[in-house]
Fold:
Amino acid sequence: MNMIRQVPLIGCIALVYAFLAVFGSGVPSSSMASFTLPSGASWTFAIGDFLLLLSVIALYFEILKATRTSQASVLDHILSLFSFVACLIGFLLVPALGTSTFLLIMVMALFDVIAGFTITISTARRDFSIPERE
Structure:
């Protein structure tokens, strides 16, 4: 159970998107639901939009995980970095992943990496600060 906590959530969502984009022939742009708004406009909620929504929620939980200070957090940061690099390579080299939706998921993976290192460094600095002499 503890090892599952180290898995980057955004990386999992990116993997689902990649699977659907490569093997699902246009599934991310497929409509999940369509609603008529009070203004009369029709709003379509696509599978890619749903994955973006999940990514935003996952980013929140990833930042929450970054506030922990333990040896396991180092592994979490490394896996998040690998997840971002995999997203970047996929975005650049796989035609089905060259979409704005996947770009936004990749940017959230980058924010996860940056926030994780930043929060860990500032938390460690606060935890190990040396009091000033008088």
